[in-house]
Structure formats: structure tokens, C-alpha cells
Amino acid sequence: MTEVTPMVFVVDDDEHVRSALARLIRLSGYSVQTFESAETFIERFDPNGGPACLLLDLQLPGLSGLALQHQLHEWLPIIFMSGHGNMSSAVDAMKGGATDFLPKPVTDSVLLDAIERALERARRLFGWRSELQDIQSRVKQLTPREREVMTLVVAGYLNKQVASELGAAEKTIKIHRARVMEKMKAGSLAELVRLAEKAESATATDTTASYR
Questions:
Q1: Separation CA 17–CA 23 (nearest Å)
Q2: Within the chain, how many helices (H) and strands (E) appear?
Q3: Domain made up of 141-208: CATH architecture
Q4: What are the extents of the domains in the chain?
Q5: pLDDT digit string (tens) for 102-145?
Q6: 178 and 131 in contact (C-beta within 8 Å)?
Q7: Signal sequence span per UniProt (predicted)?
Q8: CATH number of 7-128: 1.10.287.990, 3.40.50.300, 3.40.50.720, 3.40.50.2300?
Q9: What pLDDT digit, counting tens, does each position of 71-107 carry?
């Protein structure tokens, strides 16, 4: 499997700052994309892309850095930078899940350390989301009856109890159960339970995600 190159997004309304940051980030071996506003970033951001972090200016024309953070929710790690930051803004940013809040000007070493921490978190998030997407694709292969069987099986029902609940022959339930195990790529009941729980978690995440 080809490793996905992490991306560093930079949102800052100062063109000189964007250029300087992009140059530093590229020279340090990272991929980088820059944006002059939060609105431009939202238009182009793909939440289903590879692992990435966001280097975000607090004070922006139009949508502010904190407002953008609120819209992105848990989609990617955010490093705030500000020359006008105050304690209240820093607290709000960290409560919102920011990985760092850096005052401008920031030294190269401090910034790059913050980027690496954020990207490490991004890699974990990407791996987690990739796993959930794989599990969801398995669930989609199940027929409606197989999903019913899986729901009851992971709830602890025996085959004869599932048969009684669904009004089917126990032999038929055994066939459905075997197909569920095969399609979900589960080697044991315990693994099927784990997969079902993650599939449910993925559905809940999709339902509550704040990014649009």
C-alpha cells in the first residue's frame, strides 16, 4: 500500500507570511498549500483527503480563525498562530481542540516541532477514518436480512433465538450468519462485535460531523 504524503495547509491573509511559511515547510520536506482566507480554504478543503494539519492565523478578514476551527470540528489538527492573540483566544482555541497556539513571530524550530506533532495526530486520525471506511464498505455488502442477523448475533442471541426473533428456520440463520462472517471478514464472534461497534461509531460520526 502506497503511503500517503501528509499535507500542511496554511491560512493567513498576509501574502509575505504565506510565502515565508510555505518556503520553510517545503524545505523541511512537507507538502504545503496556502490560502488567503478561511472562506477560500473551506471551498477547496476535502475532508476525505489524506493526513493533514492546518496552520491557521487567528485574525482573518471575514470568517475568523476560531470560527473556521468551529466549522472544521474534528476533521484535522489545527495550529494557531497570532500576533494579536490574548489569553482568552488561546483558551478558546485549545478548548476547541487546537494542538498548539503560537505567538508571532515564531522560531522555525518551534513551528516545525508543532507541525510534526500535529501531523502525527493527523496520521492517527487518517488511519482511524480509513479503517472505519473499510468497515462501512463491508457492511454495505450485507443484505437487509444479513444486517438483521448481525445485529442480533452481536447482541448475544443464539442461532435458535435469532431464528425465533426473525421467524426463520435455524438452518437458514446459520447460512446468513456464515455469510455475515465472510463479508465482514470476521474470524470470530468477538471480532464481529468489534467491527459492528466500529461501524456504529462511524455512522454516529457521519451524523454529527459539523463540516459542510
A1: 10
A2: 9, 5
A3: Orthogonal Bundle (1.10)
A4: 7-128, 141-208
A5: 988 889 999 999 999 999 999 998 888 888 889 999 999 999 99
A6: no
A7: none
A8: 3.40.50.2300
A9: 886 789 999 998 776 677 777 888 878 889 998 888 9
